[in-house]
Amino acid sequence: MSKFSLITKGLLKENPTFVLVLGMCPTLATTTSAMNGLEMGLATMFVLILSNIVISLIAPVVPDKVHIPVYIVVIATFVTVLQLVMQAYTPGAFKTLGLFIPLIVVNCIILGRAEAFAGKNSVWDSALDGIGIGIGFTLSLTVIGIVREILGSGAVFGWKFISGDGILAFVMAPGAFIVLGYLMVLFNKIAKK
Amino acid sequence: MAAKSTLTNMVLCLFGVCFVCAALLGAVFVVTKAPIEEAAAAEARASIAKVLPAGGEISAEMPSDAEGIGGYFVQTSDGAVTAYAVKSVAGGFGGPLALMVGVLPDGTVFNTSVLSHSETPGLGAKCTEEGSRFREQWKGFSGALSVKKDGGDVDAITASTITSRAYTKAVAQAVALVKGMSGGSAVHSATATHEPAQKTSVDGTAAAPKTKEDQL
Q1: N or C end of chain A, less CB within 10 A?
Q2: Where are the domains of chain A?
Q3: CA B203 → CA B78, B183, B195, B198, distances in Å?
Q4: What are the residues facing B71 on neighbouring strands?
């Protein structure tokens, strides 16, 4: 597999949201606006890249029977680092994403990539895989966020183009499922061609 | 490729990974401790300043036992109390609704702001929108503290009566606390209900409890 395709497969063939359908909890809950989706995606990407790198480094010396606890400790460490750093330097973003930052620990994308890829591949490849999947996740969340913000609040990235409210349902949970469902259909239709 | 899963290997490996991770977390915690406290303090200062008249000095946080009150701050100018900022919590639709309420010594609301909430986006969460009619009505509010549906003077948010009631209750708690403090300390016989007649005496003497509490 070429180095370039390691990144692009995260965008299309193995898109974590629309194809692998992983990490649905933050996907549905944090995409009420484009900015929230983008921030959540970037936060996840940060943890994903670092944990992929470290796990691919330590994998050869980790005994099989304890590899899951070891991976979880590594992931939880990076999530806590991220949490502290966000609390200190971007308190606004930390407040909106709130509970979903600590929940990155149990995001299946991260443990999934650690298991399926980083544990078996070189450091460099694992880093690229983290970047690819991370960008794919970030873009998917941002797109869902943009659609929900346009329909639900009549705005894009906080810039309002209609006065008053949009269709409220799209800001709430049902809208998240509807938008995700339609985007999944659209994505798979385009990707299959 | 992986090391053998013997007991020694597993214990050593887990110990090593946990040790390194704990050390890393400790280091990050030390580095970010000051900025986190700074950010929290800046946020608290901003939320207090928003609900009080400009100028004056703001005291440190005072504790309070009153129901729903999380503490309050006293604003003084040349030794006289000019306003109070009260942290007040009431049960909203989705969970606790915490407000910062600025109250003048005579019990008039100066301004309010939302500290934290879990109301429904697009419905109850509208109580966080600055400049909305619901929020604007609190500036200088001195009417009956219940929503119009319950016979008061507060315009509720459309389709969010429970949130509006909680908001009103939180403001009422703050006003009651301030009235209790300034009324009680001014004259023993004075009741908090006759504000116009009592107002001057409250303003004149309200500095006394402030200095007393400062020493505590």
Answers
A1: C
A2: 8-186
A3: 12, 10, 11, 9
A4: B87
Give me the interface pTM, i.e. the ipTM.
0.79
Residue of B nearest to A95 (CA): B116
Q: Is pLDDT at A79 greater than 90 in this prediction?
A: yes
Give the model's confidence band at A1: pLDDT under 50 very low, under 70 low, under 90 confident, else very high.
low
Domain ranges of chain B: 52-215
Cβ–Cβ below 8 Å for A66 and B14: yes
* Of residues B17, B29, B121, nearest to A70 (C-beta): B17
pLDDT digits (tens, 9 = 90+) for A30-63: 888 888 899 999 999 999 999 999 999 988 888 8
Per the structure block, which two tokens stand in for A130? 């983290």
> B-contacting residues of A 44-73, CB under 8 Å?
58-67, 69-70, 73
Q: Give residue-wise pLDDT tens across range B157-187.
A: 888 889 999 999 999 999 988 888 876 444 3
Cα torsion B135, B137, B140, B142: sign:
negative
